[in-house]
Amino acid sequence: MAIPLHHLLILGGLLFCIGLVGVLIKRNLIVMFLCIELMLNAANLTFIAFARHLSQMDGQVIVFFVMVLAAAEAAVGLALVIALYRTRQTMDADDLTLMKL
Amino acid sequence: MKELLIWIPALPFIGFLLNGIFGRQIPKKLAHWIACLTTGVSFLLAVIVFFRFIGQPVTEFSFRYFTWIQSGAFRAEFGFLLDPLSLVMTLVVCGVGFLIHIYSIGYMWHEGGYYRFFAYMNLFMASMLILVLANNFLLMFVGWEGVGLCSYLLIGFYFEKKSASDAGKKAFIVNRIGDFGFVLGILLIFLNFNALGFPEVFAQVAQLPVEAGYGLLAVIGLLLFVGATGKSAQIPLYVWLPDAMEGPTPVSALIHAATMVTAGVYMVTRAYPIYTRAPEALFWVALVGSVTALFAATIGIFQRDIKRVLAYSTVSQLGYMFTALGVMAFSAGIFHLMTHAFFKALLFLGSGSVILALHHEQDMQNMGGLRKYLPVTCWTMWFGTLAIAGVPLFSGFFSKDDILWQAFAAPVAHHLIFYILATVAAGITAFYMFRLMILTFHGRTRFPADKLDHVHESPRTMTTVLSVLAVLSLVGGYVGLPAWLGPNVFKDFLEPVFKYLPSEQQAAAAAHHHSVSQELMVTGIAIAVALLGILVAWVLYQRRHVTPENETSLGWLHRLIYNKYYVDEIYDATVIHPIQRTSESFLWKVFDVGIIDGIVNGYATLSRALGIFTAQLQNGLLRSYLGWVVVGSLFFVIYILFFWSA
Fold this sequence. Notes:
The structure holds two protein chains of two kinds. Chain A has three helices and no strands. By secondary structure, chain A is mainly α. Chain A has a single domain, classed as Orthogonal Bundle (Helix Hairpins). The mean pLDDT of chain A is 91. By secondary structure, chain B is mainly alpha-helical. The longest helix of chain B has 49 residues, at 567-615. The termini of chain B are far apart. The A-B interface holds A 20, 23-25, 27, 93-94, 96-101 and B 618-623, 625-627, 630.
């Protein structure tokens, strides 16, 4: 039985919003990362949904790219987090106000 | 003559600049040399111009020096009008001014600010000369304002004394009120005649008929007269003149006796084409003049300060001049202006001599019997007193007699009222002047005996001037003899000025045959009234030794008149305090602080609030930056989805 398109889109949208809200609300940097990953995966889901619906391979290929991107970003980001923890002993986003102008 | 004429006001102006800028560094002697030299040379030039003028047939010159304002069709020039009237005024101003400058050398030598005094005096001379020589209303107004400024500066010369600076402010502000009317008059003239120069305006006015009732010319005349009441201290704007006695005595002599206060008289005479065609305006001029003459004379009766008596006397005598103008006896008014300049300057300078000798004692209660100590001052002041009282042979007699006769005989409505008021005032004038002289120079000495040793006659710079003015007070009247005695050279000299008299007036004047007997009767009444005043003063003050202290026993009458009928207090209550209270409570607190400051501060507060608000965007918080990224991207998405057409 084929899953209707709009179900997948709504799921993707919901996952995206949950991830977005999580990024904005959570203070722990790791959890913020998790939420960012969640947003990326929601985007992936949307791509695949459309690829399935339009019977094209393009969407699924893009998912590969996005995953690679996510992995690279996670690596760099976690490196940043570790560096931050080493110097500041904190992983609370509210304590990081060095960007104040 | 054109070249010489401009130097007459220019030299004192240069003197003002020199003394004003370099006065501090130059020695005191140089300061008075500059001032007196410039004024003296001006007088010399005026005399030269006079002789050249009478030696040739033309009677009116309008010299244009340069164009001052050029704006579209409107044009104001800097130009001088040379005719008998301006010549007389120039000679009086320069001559008396020069004498007073000489006097000031002796008087002001021991005062501070010597160079400043002479700088201001020279500026005054320059402004007054511009006023009388100007050939258009605008330039005359420049001189008008200039003398007002100098009056303020010189009255408040001892500015560290509060009463002096207050008096200066009062003079300027009251003058300003008059100037408001004056400017409105000038505006009306410009609107209706499209010109401001005297020749152009009066040529046009001469075409107009004599008005019945209040027409345009009457309104213009009245507005200009409001300015004259301010400058020439008539009712209702005379209140500044008595206070102006705070200034040094030479200032009182020059500005508030001989010259500045006569500017109003000159102005009305100059504008005679307007006034002679507006009988209603003339009526008010004569009424205000004669009432002021009597009113001020009564106040002078009980004053104790020697200068205040002379101040009220000036107001009263100016009233005489306006009475003359109001009955269209213009040359009589100017004649009295000239003789008044002589004897009033003399009286003021003489009183200055007394004040200086007594170390700035001005209350006549503390004077008396000074004849022995100040002989020259005494006899010169007697000349002035006899002149002002209208005693025959002295100059004042001829000019006053002329005015009284003209008021009696004039073909003008209600002229007898003016005549009666003026005659009564003449009697009172004689009274208070003799009171002044007896209280000061005769009778018992009330001055403290221990200080009498220091009382001595004034230096020669001062006494020489007094003597010259005394001689002028005696002989100055012989140029204007009454018809039954001889030729009136003065009136004949001024005759060409009055070429624009309306034909009805000329016909009436020609048809009006005054009999010699009537004229003699008027003269007789004048002399009798003066003698009556003199007699009463002599009995009271010489025989019965009444002093100002004794006068207070008259109770409420004395209080009323001594306090100048409480006019200042009335003005305070009705005009000044309401304005002050409105200014404080509404204009200041509500409008200035609340609204205007509020708007300006509001802008600042608004900017600050906006700044604080936008500053919150840059708080360094990671999460808020993320939030703004989300908002931005949301806007972007919405725009793409709904508002972008591919």
